Amino acid sequence: MHRPSNLEVGTDLYCFKDNIVPKWEDPVCAKGGNWSMSFLKGKSDTCWLYTLLAMIGEQFDHGDEICGAVVNVRTKDKISIWTKNAANETAQ
Q: Which end of the chain is more exposed for a tag (fewer CB within 10 A), N or C?
């Protein structure tokens, strides 16, 4: 697993379910939303690992509504979970 702290600033790392392209233009993501959290530099590694493990292990409530996750390596890293339907308040 790539740790965000080991990646160059400006790197985006995606982990999405099969047949979902990590673009908002993908039909599965087109009406979706996201949850995002920001982290001080070097503090996102554990959250990224747990996010991936929860997705792969199907530990999220309403996991069928999740498209994937992305980490944006910046001055402050950001981890986002993309969902299929922003209007589904229960899943959001």
A: N
Copy the structure tokens of residue 26.
């993908």
Q: Is residue 90 part of a domain?
A: no
User: Which DSSP symbol is given to 47?
Assistant: H
78, β-bridge pairs? 38, 72
> By residue range, what is the domain housing residue 65?
4-83
Q: Which two tokens stand for residue 71?
A: 């980490």
State the total domains in the chain. Answer: 1
Alpha-carbon distance of 3 to 13, in angstroms, equals 10
Give the model confidence (pLDDT) of 17-66 as tens digits. 999 999 999 999 999 999 999 999 889 999 999 999 999 999 999 899 99
